[in-house]
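Running this now, will post back.
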Amino acid sequence: MRKTLLLGATALTGLAIAMPAYAQLDEIVVSARKREESLRDLPTSATVLTPDTIQDLVLDGVEDYLRQVPGAILVNGGPAYLTDISLRGQGGGRIGFSESAAGVYRNGIFAAGGGFGGRSFNRMDLFDLARFDVYRGPQGALYGRNAVGGAVNVITQRPKLGETEARAKLAASSFERLDAEGVFNTPLNDNWALRAGGFRYDQNGGQVESLSTGNQLDQREYFGVRGAVHGQVWNDAEVTATIEYYKAEEPAFANIGFNSGKGDPSPFFRANLNREAQVDIKEITTFLEFEKPLGFADFTAIGIYKYRNASRLNEDLDHFSAQLPTASDSTASQSEQYDRYGLEVRFSNPDPSSRLDWLVGADYLQSDEFVSTLQVVNMAVGLLKAGINSLDDFDERIMSYSAFGRVGYDIFENVEIDVQLRVQHDQKEIDLNAPVVAFVPGVRKQTLETDTTQLTPVASIKWQFDPDHMVYTRVGTGYRPGGFNQNAANRGGTTVQYDPETGISYELGWKGSFWDRHVSVDLSTFYMYTNDVQLVTADDSAIAVFVLQNAGDTDIYGAELEVRTRWDIGPGTFSTNTGLSTAYGEFRDGTQAVVSGMLLDLSGARVNRTRDYILNLSTTYSMPLFNTGLRGSATASVQAEGGGYENASGDTSDPGGRDLDHFDMLDLRFALFGDDWRASVYVKNLYDEIYRLQDISGNVYINEGRTFGGDLTLNF
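Update: finished.
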């Protein structure tokens, strides 16, 4: 199957380049350099997913989106709220309440943080999108903290002045899932408009069943509403204010983790599970955006405030933990309160056609996160039960501020040099309360602090050697702050603090268009050196908790290819999107880390989360249906990945080393649409490919199997 898919992808890509083309590709706009410009003019690797692409490919959660991006994978830590984005092999070292190595942004401002959903994007983030932008390679100069592997910027639709429109969508699919969403846009007067909408997704079935109760354990429910106003003030200034509320109910760790050591007979059934815990997340997020031309510059300001209240209660700890016998009847509960403020202001060149382009800005971030964890361990001792209750908590405060700038200059008519720089200062302070154990008086408290100042420059040169072809070279840097392992600190571990991680990347790329821009090709190669890599391992004490530690340095290199085509065939239009990437990396000599409780030499070991290949290929054919006034379309999408290791010890003598599973998946969609409606049916993962997403302490998490569905969209 895998060989067939790869050969088919190669053949279709070659066909796309070789055939005469008539239907021109749409122009794609990006804002990687904090201003809108054409993707083909951008001197860095980027992928953009538009609403049409999202609809054609039936993209659902963030995992579906990332499968369309070369060099990107989703690191799955069990429940959906624990997922992490890895770009170009960066971002695998993330655990608990630490920070990711891929920047997560909403409308251009940093939007990550916290342990209950602060690692990636939720369904509220992906609702009513204008664009889903992925900028690969370090973006530390203009995007700041965490953009070591790259940045992902989700841009939501703004209210549209002078337009009245509405959209409603109903969908049903496997696992008893029902979805409903709606959006409307209306003018308030000549200068103001309102856009509001919401969604509700209910999955009452699932693919994981409890043998004790017969209940489906992977039921989910998501609800969100958003309202935004956009207006013109002071003649030429624009203001956009957005508020949104999001609620998620998801299964917890032990429910969906397949643990054969606890008696589970297969990935689809749970044995000896005496509790069915749930994760509840509630968020409120607001944005305020302001833009005004000042003559000498364009001024932009964007602010964000996020509040989150989340918990996982009554987790079946003995089913999850390898250290506890199944009969111990132990539980774990955890809660989080998180709030964050962020503000970015910048001044930019008001004339994008000028030979000199520039931008200067500053940003500020402040967050406060309080987490409380309760564990109750009941161990049988003869005919009696001994109970040990422990309660620990931490309160972490982060303050970060930076100044950044960019200067681009056309040194010749077709040669541009671009230089960017950010100076960033991060302060972290954490109050830790050690476990309060039953019958043991007293609480040990401690406060830890750290601060870091970091420079992250970026420079590029591009040569537009003809109107349809450009080559570029780019040097980029990125930075991920250090921090504290809260569990290790609270429980007497030795790996309490870890240092910042920094990276520098060298990239060479070419972007070309053929046949009057009916076919576009983006090709890039890169090499990246990462210093003091933050690696997930087991602590070197008897407490057996996972921690982050600085393991040493890595070298990663790879290549990425994207091909887009569109042409007329017969009465319809045929389009393809192809992405193919490969990456390989090694730990440098002298790299050592504590893995599974023992010191392991990782010198020469392959960097985890680097894939031999990541392939995505989608094709769509759309045509009018005779003389009915209707149109129909058929879409096929292939996603395939292979090679690499789940953890850093994958190719060493460590018995815990694991390969990443290979997989090939095929999705199909057929749609019928008129002027103001669209109906479709689809199947995802047609061949029911099941593969391991991640193994955590013997708990194996798998992907979703074959699903069928249909939807109806009405436009008013």
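Residues 3-22, 437-442 have pLDDT under 50 and may be disordered. More later if anyone needs it.
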